[in-house]
Q: What sequence folds into this?
């Protein structure tokens, strides 16, 4: 699941969307809700980076390589003229996160990647081995 961080002093609908998403996740793993049958299970949750991360308590925990899909993402952003002020902001941020991705990639071989996004996780990652 992808949702907003818990805090956002500038967009009241973002914390509301967060609460609804996390409640849906809890209900998806609740035995017996809404009735008989198999539970859906709890999917991983990621908070995407808001445009004022320092005001939202955002801490980058996952860096996602978005190099291959960047042009499509930029074109999608440009469809929302009301947020024109964020087009260059998120482009510059993707470049900066790309630098962090390359510096932290280790043996993944991502040295040639240039664009990335950061995400935060509210729940622990489940793994069979540390990687």
A:
């Amino acid at each position: 699941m992808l949702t907003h961080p818990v805090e956002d002093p500038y967009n009241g609908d973002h914390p509301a969307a967060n609460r609804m998403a996390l409640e849906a996740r809890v209900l998806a793993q609740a035995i017996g809700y809404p009735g008989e049958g198999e539970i859906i299970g709890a999917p991983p949750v990621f908070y995407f980076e808001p445009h004022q991360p320092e005001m939202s308590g955002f801490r980058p925990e996952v860096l996602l390589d978005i190099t291959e899909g960047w042009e499509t993402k930029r074109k999608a952003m440009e469809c929302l003229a009301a947020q024109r002020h964020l087009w260059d902001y998120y482009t510059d941020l993707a470049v900066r996160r790309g630098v962090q991705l390359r510096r932290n990639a280790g043996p993944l071989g991502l040295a040639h990647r240039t664009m990335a996004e950061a995400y935060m996780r509210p729940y622990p990652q489940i793994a069979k081995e540390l990687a």
Notes: The radius of gyration is 17 Å. Residues 1-51 form one domain. The chain has a mean pLDDT of 89.
